[in-house]
What we know:
43% of the residues lie in helices and 21% in strands. It is α/β, with parallel strands linked by helices. The protein folds into two domains: 118 residues, Response regulator (Rossmann fold, 3-Layer(aba) Sandwich), CATH 3.40.50.2300; 111 residues, Arc Repressor Mutant, subunit A (Orthogonal Bundle).
Amino acid sequence: MATIKNKILVTEDDPGIITFLKTTLSAEGYDVITAANGKSALSVISSHCPDCILLDLGLPDMDGSDIIASVRAWTQTPIVVISARSMEQDKAAALDAGADDYITKPFGAVELLARIRTALRHTYTRTERDEIGLRGHYRVGAMEIDYKRYRVTVNGQDIRLTPNEFRIVALLGRNAGRVMTYKAILRELWGPAASMDNKILRVHMASIRRKMEPNPNEPRYIFTEVGVGYRMAEDESRG
Ligand code: CA
């Protein structure tokens, strides 16, 4: 498929998952290298410069957040964390430490490949921020955020958001496709001294969804990542 083979580092200690990942990623045309613990992952990352890193949070030798912090000290290579379902706090901590995204076990090939494509696309297009800075708007489906006029429309209809609601939607739009943790959103909107109470975000989000989602119970534009944060739908037709 791909003309240039992207190199993916699989950091995982479960032989069954390693086999699944190798098979799935090789079939999709990726070059796959593996590491079974944190120490060897760090050495492979510096010697092989992978294009994307898959990182199991439950490795035998090192804490996931420590590995991420070490990697982030010298490279912005996208990191997609693999975690167990019950580990919401670990997922949020990994994202706050600099991981780009996560995938929850058990996961299927379709979801895995979508996460990797998104992570790689963000490397290539640099960031949505740059693009939006040039174009002044972000559009996905029938929804458009107009950054210059502080406006959101759905099907061309003005959505009357409060200033705080607009800031939340604007922030998620600049990071479309990526999960933003509650902590990251609160810090970005109200500064480092902001209260880390998620309740205020949930109240704003409920109001935002009532206004802009055709069916607030089945959001089309802003998804909830349970226990972690929110993700705005990404326009996959670009990049
Ligand atoms: Ca493990």
